[in-house]
Amino acid sequence: MEPVDHGTRERLLDAAGEVFADRGYEQATIREICRRAGANIAAVSYHFGDKKALYIEVIAYAHRCADEYDPAREAAGAADPAERLRVFVRTFMQRIGHKGRPAWHARLMAREMASPGAALDQVVRSGVRPKFEALQAILRTLNPSLSDREVERCACSIVGQCLIYHHARPVLTRLFPTLKLDAREIERISEHITRFSLAAVARAHPRGGARP
Question: Most buried residue, 6, 65, 138, 164, by CB count within 10 Å?
């Protein structure tokens, strides 16, 4: 049995991420993953158990790497609800625009989104849901009259405004060839999304009511 070696574990995660992203779960092999990681085949069993457990951990690992920019954590320290929303949006956009992570992270998550399974369930449960609930809490403070369903809709709208710059980036760069998600542009986009959302939340339908 291979001795405890955290370096081997990290190499396996990176190598598996590349292979899963390139070939998908079904076509990926433990042999190729171990070859890329410079580890023997028994290392996967030792560190993760089996291929499925390795895949789930790779998805979770990719998501954890993005938590350098955690919107919920950063927003928690802001002074008032409007500023908390501003910090949440800015951090979310910084997360989207961050270029320091390996390319396989985005490719692998795109595969998992297209064919979701237990790995995505785990990421949503431990990573996405807490952030979404933090955003909902900000919105309830901004407009206490909102129903739970209206809070959900407002939160989805805010997240959607951010995610278009990730999921639709190939389209956006063709529509707007000069678009560049550098620090200055991220700040401008974040401020626009925040102001747009603050105005919408303030005018959103109150609990049980409807506007003409």
Answer: 138
